[in-house]
Amino acid sequence: MTATDAPSAVSPSSFDWEGAFSPQARRLGSSAIREILKITQRPEIISFAGGLPAPELFPIEAVREAANTVLSTYGAAALQYSTTEGHLPLREWLAARAGIDAANVQIMTGSQQSLDLLGKMLIGEGDVVLVEAPTYLGALQSFNPYGPQYVQMAADEEGIDLDALEEQLKTVKAKLLYAVPNFQNPTGRTLSLERRQRLVELTARHGIILIEDDPYGAIRFSGEPLPSLYELSLKMCGGPERSHVIYSGSFSKVLVPGLRDAWVQAALPIIRKLIQAKQGADLHTPTFNQMIISELVETVMPAQIERVKAVYGERAQHMMARMDAQFPAGVQHTTPQGGMFLWVTLPEQIDTVPLLEQAVKRLVAFVPGAPFYALGGGHNTMRLSFSSATLDQIETGIAALAQTIQEALD
Amino acid sequence: MTATDAPSAVSPSSFDWEGAFSPQARRLGSSAIREILKITQRPEIISFAGGLPAPELFPIEAVREAANTVLSTYGAAALQYSTTEGHLPLREWLAARAGIDAANVQIMTGSQQSLDLLGKMLIGEGDVVLVEAPTYLGALQSFNPYGPQYVQMAADEEGIDLDALEEQLKTVKAKLLYAVPNFQNPTGRTLSLERRQRLVELTARHGIILIEDDPYGAIRFSGEPLPSLYELSLKMCGGPERSHVIYSGSFSKVLVPGLRDAWVQAALPIIRKLIQAKQGADLHTPTFNQMIISELVETVMPAQIERVKAVYGERAQHMMARMDAQFPAGVQHTTPQGGMFLWVTLPEQIDTVPLLEQAVKRLVAFVPGAPFYALGGGHNTMRLSFSSATLDQIETGIAALAQTIQEALD
């Protein structure tokens, strides 16, 4: 069904698209993960590579009921254009939970849109953006077109190293700091309470905007819940209008990702600019989807979160136990207390990019760690997701991965 | 429910958000239309201001059935993350209709996203973008952050004046041309066949990328259908890979807008870059929504289009007849053959911004024309939408508007 490619008098050669791309387009790259995932999607492969929530836990019947209820309740309004700000009952529910006003809550089309539009609003070419090393790859993809200059922050098991950061800030003039404090993607690490307080205080003192990306916060399967950076900033800075923290939340991991519903909590000047940016980006998040989510937050979501926590916790424990039993000496992993990921560090001589090829031969897949570093590094690291593999698959897959690593070490 | 705004040792004053905004954020402005619409949303006002499809025509029960079918057919996959390219059956359906390959079709979250991401990919700061005068305000909003230099093209009843454009191109080096050839927003004008051919040929010869925005094309209620610029370019340039036309389509006006589903047809280098841009912008269009639309395109959409055409055609005829009967001499209007809008030009001495205030007092609203001009002009013009007003409302509203205009002329 392809139209003829016969030559033409009008346009003798193909159009020079590469030459036509803007500077921001040239800074876009395809996601390394995305290309890798394509290889690993063969059904016979046990994949710890993806970042997919477990589909067998999705509340399909509840979504069906909510969709029907929404159409009965709202009728045509559920399918009509709606406000850029988002569905008011959903914004009010989120605001009440956070102890802020609905005016400080903006609904977004997935948290990827939050990152894109916050990047667009806040990153000018050459602006210094502090990121964890490693950090969430999707944030780099969103920010890159706007031309940031990244500076990496050191981290350990408790997250960002605040002593090191304080030292860095003596010489680095940063505009923005991006962090995933809970069960970080990709490492699974969680920022400790003491460091959270210091981070909020330090960035406030230096006038650095802090973007807190928190898609996994509700999925804590061990340890005690910690306040968000945003929550701490409300107390430390004196309310939402004085906070320099922009909080990005999402329904993708606690309900379902395919509806693309997320939100931002921030001071009014940020929300107002975000509304303008979103008008130009997609007018508004799908009306129907926001209303469906709004039906589910009170009814289904609390039990859904408990279910997800129990299952992911069991899978994480199993994966860590199998790794501890089978991985060669010198291989280390993080110990996540929630979320979907853990991080493995191999001996220096191993490069996880060629290792992936060997692993795929043994029918197991992971994501090499290097792409998660904004400025390079991490050649001997990998991200494993435990969220969507069964216990049996974890058993088989970790055994295959242990063999692959052992072979590479020999 | 607002957290305390007590002063704090950490952040004694509010954060300087204005100073933190990027150059692209500073180029964002709120939609003039959006602000005006807020005033005119009082229920007692007959509004010709909005650009809303008629909600009483929405196929609510068909959407309900489709939603249920999708959940039964696809189960969890309807609610899971999905590919950036979009739901393959929907892309295949669109491709077959256009006589191209599915690889040349990209699903988007509303055509506003198409404009945003095409702007991001193609407009570098200072690049010359040719736009109609007046043009679609939403396109300006999407393009503005990327810093285009607009050049306006003259137009008459048959759309863009090709003689004038050919003359302009002798001195203007343009990167991009943006046009709405069918029932343009805001004027309702349609580009004639002869001018379509010349426009495709002229832009190809000058190496200018042509973005064809076609949300209304299917809603033709009088006259003969014309080929799209994209279709003409496939023949004239020799197939999709040689075409310099990027086609932006949408399901918002032919099905429902609240699901936010649209698409782009273009050469592979554009599609590949668009995929990268979309990964960073929202990962993918909501899975569930794409599947619902895919259920509806074969079953409900053909009859829906006929229904919309009949109703909008009747409303447009009625509005024009009432205007011809009641508007003072010297007031002119366009004669749309489809779409949702018509354009009124008043005597030079009338400014439609203060006129709107007077109109609202008489309980009728329109959108002043000036914001639709990228470079100013059109103080004595207005856009009227006939899509969502009943015949009675048109009767009453046009009478009130006629009185308002007469009063302003006196």
UniProtKB/TrEMBL annotation, chains A, B:
Example of a GO MF term: pyridoxal phosphate binding
Domain Aminotransferase class I/classII large: start-end pairs: 57-401
Coiled-coil positions: none
Example GO biological process: alpha-amino acid metabolic process
Pfam families: Aminotran_1_2 (PF00155)
Domain of life: Bacteria
Cross-referenced InterPro entries: Aminotransferase_I/II_large (IPR004839), Class-I_PLP-dep_aminotransf (IPR050859), PyrdxlP-dep_Trfase (IPR015424), PyrdxlP-dep_Trfase_major (IPR015421), PyrdxlP-dep_Trfase_small (IPR015422)
Cofactor requirements of the protein: pyridoxal 5'-phosphate
Keyword set, alphabetical order: Aminotransferase, Pyridoxal phosphate, Transferase
Similarity comment text for this entry: Belongs to the class-I pyridoxal-phosphate-dependent aminotransferase family.
Subunit annotation: Homodimer.
Protein name: 2-aminoadipate aminotransferase
Source organism of this protein record: Deinococcus ruber
